[in-house]
Amino acid sequence: MEEIRWGIIGCGDVTEVKSGPAFNKVNHSKLVAVMRRDSAKAADYARRHQVPKWYDNATQLINDPEVNAIYIATPPLQHEAYTIEALKAGKPVYVEKPMTLDAKAAQRMTNAANKLNVKLCVAHYRRAQPMFLKVKELLAAHVIGDIRLVRLKMLQSPNPALIAKTADNWRINPAISGGGLFHDLAPHQLDLMTYYFGAVKSAMGIATRQQENTGVDDLVSGNILFKNGVVFSGTWCFSVAPQDQADSCVVYGSKGHISFPMFGHKIKVTTDQSTEEYAFEPLPHVQQPMIEKVVDYFMDKGPNPCSGEDAWITMKLMDDFTRK
After folding, report:
1. 106 with 137, same domain?
2. Same-domain check for residues 101 and 167
3. Region 268-285: what's the mean pLDDT?
4. What's the domain range around 191?
5. Is the terminal CB of the chain with fewer CB neighbours within 10 Å at N or C?
6. What pTM value is reported for the model?
């Protein structure tokens, strides 16, 4: 491929700023078609973003000869079917996180990509952002010594601002999302943990519903033992008071600790010698660095930035924590 000509399936809220505009800002990349089941909304998106074509049928977009790569940004329920359809058409796929509803579906998607020998990437885009790459660099440099444990807290009040607002609130319908808000936010965090600390030895967790007006788990606690001996402990709760909201990840080592938020822009490094902070500017399009790497991979100019196998691990951890 000399140019990646993208078609988006599911041009909803996520694609407005986070991802969609980036496809035209990356070298050798162009957004040529979008699809949404609501034809009026598909046409409106295409008009506002200067996209040449729009569809209200995913199969038609997949089979458009001008489209040679597919970005799937629908709710998770449709990820597996659309991914496999695109792969069978011989078109590489970049699919949103969570990869799908559960680990079994993620394995089927990965198997299909391998069997058909068509490329598949998953949008765990924090892997490519400067702030999280800096954390990886600091860990590799042993700035805080040997890593001992990680404590993660994601505490939010009902209807948190971190969650994109949609008319039907599908994120709390497990048949569509795979679970509750945990399934929307935890993929970002758990993928980074495996990106930083490697292979998982064992994982376990508990999940429960504490609010009566919801049909999904709103509190999840999980633990991971990595093969290198690092221990992770995470808590996600979506029913705390507004003043108790928290977004923190602290990595403790033998010489100090590194703390950072998942939805913020500052890293703090504390050792017995000093305290240092690193601040980062917000990205105009949070997925652009990842899309750059995906384009390079699709053009055989770089490695896969997040494979189906990588994302399966995250799906398996979520299944382990929620005891699916």
Report:
1. no
2. no
3. 96
4. 130-282
5. N
6. 0.95
Band of residue 324 on the pLDDT scale cut at 50, 70, 90: confident
**Gap between the Cα atoms of 226 and 202, Å rounded:** 7
Q: What is the pLDDT of residues 194-233, one digit of tens each?
A: 999 999 999 999 999 998 877 889 999 999 999 999 999 9
Cross-strand pairs, 196: none
Residue 235 dihedral angles phi and psi, to the nearest 5°: -130, 130
Measured distance CA(239)–CA(22) in Å, rounded: 34
Sheet architecture: strand order including 200-208: 200-208, 219-226, 231-237, 147-155, 246-253, 256-260, 266-271, 275-279
Residue 107 falls inside a structural domain: yes
Tens of pLDDT, residues 129-160: 999 999 999 999 999 999 999 999 999 998 77
Structure tokens at 113: 């990509």
Q: Give the rounded distance of the alpha carbon of 251 from its chain centre.
A: 21
What stretch of H or E contains 33? strand 29-35
Residue among 202, 269, 229, 225 nearest 148 (CA): 229
Selection from 112, 184, 179, 219 nearest residue 319 by Cα: 179
Domain count, the chain: 2
Q: Contact 67/47 with Cβ under 8 angstroms?
A: no
| Three-state secondary structure of 42-111 | HHHHHHHCCCCEEECCHHHHHCCCCCCEEEECCCHHHHHHHHHHHHHCCCCEEECCCCCCCHHHHHHHHH
Both 137 and 57 in one domain: the answer is no
Give me the amino acid identity at 302: G
